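Dear Dr. K.,

Following up on our conversation at the group meeting, I've run the structure prediction for CHAT domain-containing protein from Candidatus Chloroploca mongolica. I'm pasting the input sequence below exactly as I used it, so you can double-check it against your construct before we proceed with anything downstream. Let me know if the numbering doesn't match what you have in your notebook.
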Amino acid sequence: MQSSRQTTTAQWVRLMQLAERDPRRSGRIACQWSQRGTRTAYEELAIGWALLRWERLEAAAQALGTAAANLPPSDHATHLLCERAQLMLAQLQGRGAELQAGWEDHVARCHTLPGGDAMLAARCEQVAHLNVLGRYREARTLTTMLTPLVTARTSLALQARFFHVSGVAAIGCGDFSTAQQCLNQAGALFRQLGHRAEVARVAFEQGWLALRREALATAKQMLEQAHTIYRRLDLPFRVALCERDLGTVAYLQNDYGHAIARGVAARTSFLALGRHAHAAGCDFNLGTVAHVSGLYDLAMAVYQRAAQTYRERGHAFLAFVAGRNQVLVACAQGDPAHALALADTLAAEGERLGDDLGACKLLEARARALLGLGRTTEAAETWATAASRFVALGNRGAAAACQLELAWLQLEAGDVELADRLLHVIAADLADRPAQLWRVHSALGRIAVQKGALHEARDAYFTAVTLVAGMRRRLASEHASSGIFRQAQDLHNAALKLAVQLEDHDALLRLADSQHSLSLEYQLIQATHQPATAGVREAAGRALREALSSSAEPAQRDAAVEHYLTTLLHTRHVTLPPHQPVEPCDPVRLRHELTAAYGLAWTLLCPLFTDDALLLVGVTAEGSFCTTRPYDQQLHQLLDRACLPGQRLMTYRDLARLREAERPAWATLSALGQCLLPTWLTARLAPQHRLLIVPSGPLHGLAWAALRVNEAWLCEQAILQILPNLRAARTQPSLDPHAPALLIGCSEFGTRAVPLPLVGANLEIAARTWPGPVVQLRDQAATLAALRAANAQRALERYGLIQIASHAQLGSADGLLAQIKLTDDDMLLDDVVQLRLQAHLVILTACEGGAGAVLPGDEVLSLSRALLTAGARSVIASLWTVYDQGLLALLEPLYQALAGGHDAPTALAHAQRDLCARPEVTGSMLHTPYIWGGFHVVCR
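The predicted structure tokens came back this morning:
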């Protein structure tokens, strides 16, 4: 019996030792043991310890509870070991500051054991919990007290743990050299012992240390090392921690798409594990992406919620960080007084925490608030102080960011030489941070302009513009991409003006390529369909519609918009492809491709706006052109009359002429035609001439077909094709007349909208004219539920032509509520994006199907753009209200031309020419551009 007892004892001890070396293997053995009919209390302790190390907390809690209840009362040491395990378990379960009292009681009981190792082990775990709470100064005080107890007689494992927790406390206090030394010692000892999970934990902390120093390459390397080991050991909580911090690295490297994707992945894992505080931390990190993307209201709301959550859970350190970020957002929102007051309030808290790095970061934020208040001298002094303190802490990246602000202040003050020297010094320290580096090159460009080195300035501006575009190209969110562009809008203006001054038309095209619709470009590359998150998006969209259509308070509506925008920002970045380098626009190749497609009968028009000018950039087979128009009050008024919904009726029916007998016919559209279509372009026009247009700014809302040129409509003198960006300037092959067609029509909507009695006749034209097989979904068959079901089965991919006849509207919330009404529900913009289409052409015979909310950076949210993202090659839609009788008259020649083998732009041109050639009949509007002019073809 005695021999058997010793063997059993050795087994449970060996299982606990194995848990330190291989948590996954020991955990699996523990699961096998737990299936035994009878187990000793020591075996229960070993099972609980192994499952604790394997992060199976519920099962560990059960086993440890059983062990604690059944261990012999006389075995005081093992009771305390079990108690320590239960306290460690409570810490992993997220217990807050109240757990410290438990640790103090436990340490007091450990004092009764001989040797001191039990007390030292307990104190190390108490320090670890203080570190988790962000109470680093208290943790460091404890480690200082414990240092004399760590002697040669202390076990290697306990020495390693002591160095580990000491290193983390030193990181939190900003003592990075001590932290590095402690973590190196801990890592070496854990490797010697073969404790793989602890080796990974030390690597994780070294990653955090590198993050605090903003040594981003090292941080990424150490975190990926820890991530690899954790995955092999099947430790889901630790894996999620690595995902979260790798997301932080991606954010600091301005790789916002991957920052969002990793943050969402970590948040999902934390919630599945019941770690709500850690999930809140991921929300905080995602808020930083909103901040740098210019979504300031969203970022402020996230930071405020995070600060409250951290305070409630006793995480003073993280609450301080959330508060500091609120200072920066308040500055960006144009409220520097509030920002400064908040910074001053936080200063005392930072002092109490004893975090030198945090204090420096707060100084940096305070300087920005001072600058916003016009206290430039104080701001400069504060940035200089912060920079020197960052250097002392070994954080060269943060120091360089402060010096960048000083360089801009010197540049504004006219000290060009000093600014130039400083910018060249700090550029290397900001090499992996595009968000700061573009500002370095922008400033260098400005300096070169002042020195008269215009070609050098052009190159610097292009470097800066390329960096900004690179950040935007990694985002599938139009709002986030636009937010980044807004911050660099002055750079774009300066670069455009310089290119005009140099008469560098190729440079203008490359600048246009770095501006237009970069989120659409990204969405077309990545897999936008995320069925796993469809329910989340649908719920957020439903809440938004309800809030905006009800009598909800403004705060509730704002919260609904914020929640929906956040949901889209997160779910569009759940899966990401590897980064694909984007080749810059090559005007020579572009000219060659278009000439191969259309011979000499083509022109590409790319209008670009600066703050005070409209640049009409053109490319032809023979060369390139640029005409500059003043963007003055007169042009503003003309564009308002042609583009604003409240003035379109007057313009496109020429109603002003009824009031002024002497007024020339179609005066507004003629004036716009003369302004927007220079003579080098109008001289080339002919009925079969292909005019490819990449609109910008307000011109996205212009009915180009209805411009008057030489007493004729533009659609009579060219085949018009709207492009979202220059990369879409390629051949549009004709639609196969024998491809299957899907016709979707809704005529009844209950109380949601007025009926559309002519939808049936609308679809009958298509069904009668289209040569290929036709499938129709009408009324009760045309539901959102039916479309979602067909989409899930990828059934929509078989159709080469799709027509949707129903109500549609652009809606509010910056295009987020653009929708197509179906019989049972509304299909929101994001529902359209999630469709899986391979249609060559989608015809959207609905009001405002082509209308869009245009954000800075020419990010456009519209139903037609959403259909392109879903996979359609081209979309025919209207910018405004569609009139049924006029639509029937338009569709007949449109479908006849399509059936005859013409591509979509040519077919629409034929249909519009058919209507505008009709004689004027009293009471009829069919000949007016108000009926046919709003339709356009947008292609990708």
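Two things stood out to me. Residues 635-723 form one domain. The radius of gyration is 33 Å.

Best regards,
J.T.
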